Amino acid sequence: MKRFILSYSSMWRHNLVMINSPEMAAERSKTPLLSIRGAAKAFGPVVALADGVVEILPGEIHALVGENGAGKSTLVKILAGLYNLDAGEFLVKGKPVAFRTVADSKAEGISVIYQEPTLFPDLTVAENIFIGRQPKNALGLINRSAMRAQARALFDRLGVRIDPDRIAEGLSIADQQIIEIAKAISLDASVLIMDEPTAALSGIEVERLFQVARALRASGAGILFISHRFDEVFALCDRITVMRDGEYISTHSTESVTVPEIVHEMVGRDIGELFPKVAAKVGDTILNVSKLSRVGVFSDISFEVKAGEIVALAGLVGAGRTEVARAVFGIDTYDQGFVELNGTRLKRNNPQAAIDAGIGFVPEDRRKQGLVMDLSVARNAALTLRNRLSRFGLINGTTERRAAEEWTSRLQVKTASQEYKVSTLSGGNQQKVVLAKWLATEPILLIVDEPTRGIDVGTKSEVHRLLSDLAGRGIAILMISSELPEVLGMADRVLVMHEGRITAQLDRADATAESVMHAATAQLEH
Amino acid sequence: MTLTSPAPSQETPPKTARRATRDFASVLRWREIPVTIALIVLVGLTYLANPLFLSQQGVKDLLLNATIVIILAVGQAMVIITRNVDLSIGSILGIVAFSTGTLFVAVPGIPIVLVFLTGMALGALLGAVNGLLVTIAKVPSLVITLGTLYIYRGLNNAWAGGTQYFAGDRPDNFGALSVDTIAGFPLITLIAIVVVVIVAIFMASTRPGRDLYAIGSDPEAAKLFGIPVTRRVLLAFLSNGILAGLAGVLYASRFNSVGATTGTGLEFDIVAAAVVGGVAIFGGSGTVAGAAIGALLLTTITSALTAIRVDKFWQQAIVGLLILAAIIIDRVARIRTQKKLRLSEARDV
Prior knowledge:
The structure holds 2 protein chains of 2 kinds.
Chain A: H1 2-14, H2 22-29, E1 34-43, E2 46-56, E3 60-65, H3 72-79, E4 87-92, E5 95-96, H4 102-107, E6 110-113, H5 125-130, H6 144-158, H7 173-186, E7 191-195, H8 203-218, E8 222-226, H9 230-236, E9 239-244, E10 247-253, H10 259-267, E11 285-294, E12 298-306, E13 310-315, H11 321-329, E14 336-341, E15 344-345, H12 351-357, E16 359-362, H13 366-370, H14 377-381, H15 386-389, E17 390-391, E18 394-395, H16 397-410, H17 427-439, E19 445-449, H18 457-472, E20 476-480, H19 484-490, E21 493-498, E22 501-507, H20 513-521
Parallel strand pairs in A: 3-8, 3-9, 6-7, 7-8, 13-20, 13-21, 16-19, 19-20
Antiparallel strand pairs in A: 1-2, 1-4, 4-5, 9-10, 11-12, 11-14, 14-15, 17-18, 21-22
Helix pairs in contact in A: 6-7, 16-17
Chain B: H1 13-29, H2 33-49, H3 56-81, H4 89-106, H5 112-137, H6 141-160, E1 165-166, H7 172-175, E2 181-182, E3 185-186, H8 187-205, H9 207-217, H10 219-225, H11 229-254, E4 257-258, H12 266-276, H13 288-307, H14 312-348
Helix pairs in contact in B: 2-13, 3-8, 3-9, 3-11, 3-12, 3-13, 4-5, 4-6, 4-11, 5-6, 5-11, 8-9, 9-10, 9-11, 12-13, 12-14, 13-14
């Protein structure tokens, strides 16, 4: 609460010149916690942000929406003190600020949760929360037991159980996100910025996050919430600001606007169907997984995927979906059971054999697992082909570029040059490069793990259309997704996992939000 | 800010607490255990083969041999933990050792404390140059310090030429630091122990110390979180320079001659000591105590092999094997930890 008291007193000084009247008083109590207008930022010739506008009031959850490339992330980084403004007016609690470092932003009570959790894998959970401001004892040394107790208290408030003494390495993304939230709460931030905090969460975790956000709002904090999921935006937020191409478009109060209106403003055009599902002809069984088990991770997993079919693997984060996919592809080993592709058994723990047999795997974390961020678009797209492309063990750059170009152009990857580092592309376009890489191998089974995580609406429906189209050509697709609309919209069949087991197999007709969620949480209810 | 807390899930806390402590302990302690066991086994076996190895003089020699390497390994560990490396320490030690010799000749009767301070200041200067080049030029420290290794050595050559200073040029009470003992510990070894304790507390229990681990663990995240990365990395190089300077002064006390080539080739022994002691070469984990034990192990091996009359050539090969063993143990430990963490997570869901 200290920050609030400070802010009120400084506000009061600022407004001394104003004559006291009832309207003025009302106006004053609504002084935004944070307000930025005409924000501009360019990197060389590239204008990332032309006219950023956002205003966060005390006790408000404010949504910021826009397609990837709309300038949201740039705006967030300006608010966080990572980038300096080229131009624009930036006020915190009514007084102008110019952040030079992240520490400046923090000192003003602004806390940011990034899309990708930024934990230190070698440090303990408690230390990750308190790094740089660990509680000290009388000697000025770090008081570990106090730190541990404070971390526990935070987790209790959040209603989660994470061991404060374990190291952060190996935590699921959902747990990492919760630690980020605990960190932000412990900072006693008056403005909390959440950049797609739910991208990696599902169901219960999202609800828990919302509880925290609402509690913070009730205590007078302001929250900036960035998300591509409209159901969440409308369920949680009071106002919505739309951005497009680095420009401010509009701000609405949530009650007075509809999803199609927002989407229209975001893309500047009406978007086609979000889930362009085309019924494909279902052929022979391509993938047959039988009684697959791995101690402590998953057990007794059996299912089939047929040619032309999209099978979704649904469930809560941590249910073991990704682990099953990794085992099928041979990245991880398994203890029992077998995997057959086209009737031939695959060697366990041998991804090369899986690739040779015709499996493609688009992983959950495209930045760390799907792409080599420092390599060019062409090189990334041709990675899977390097054996085929090489002559006498050497790869010819021209052949490589040509091979890459074929698929990147078919998937309409937007990049100025094939030679640009793939890290310069937007999330959606990066995902297309990952898809291009695997499609070039002409797979018969494609495993896609969270294919549209953190991808904007426009590109999202493009990815969906693409998957649908691939299924139409007879490719079997196994899709892991935490987004229920995506599961229901895209899948021919839905497998639901809970605590390492398949708890339901639902046909398209039987799969509803209720039936899937019920199976995903079955055991939690009693 | 107050939060209404959703009811925390109920499970018996004592059980979890116990498990937590156990996991924590095994994760943290694991890295120093193998090197400590190796040291004990080595000393034990050598003693059985040659009881003179642990005579009073034998122990004193072991400690004296290890002292300078320990101080350097502690400094190097600080740098390695930030995901950097300093290859120039042999050259820094050389320059400081020669300057110490020069100082005693140029200023007769100079207080020994002043000699120590001068040496550490010179080390600090050279370490700061390394740190500034690494943080400002943003070139990997491997390349920068490989450069300064040759530059500092070149300066030392130019300065010293053919000149050498011998123990006789220095006051007796300076040399006595490496001869006199308290409770069996040579004085310079006691200095090294104090260094280990101070740096260990700094690294484990102060905010800047923990920042160094955070930086090495994920430099990008450290920047996002607002840790003053540049200042901290500079601090690590500066501290390492000061410790290399201290080691340089002690070198002049311990050994007879200092000249243009003093300390040549030391850098790899020191990096090896840190790695063998469980400091991860890519930063983020390990302790200075581990590095010190690693240093003690490597110097003891050399003495042990001499004590049981093994050829010098084999000594180097055995040190190499140890480094490989340390890295393999580190990998195995890491895989085991990951497996354990995964299992505990599966149980917690």
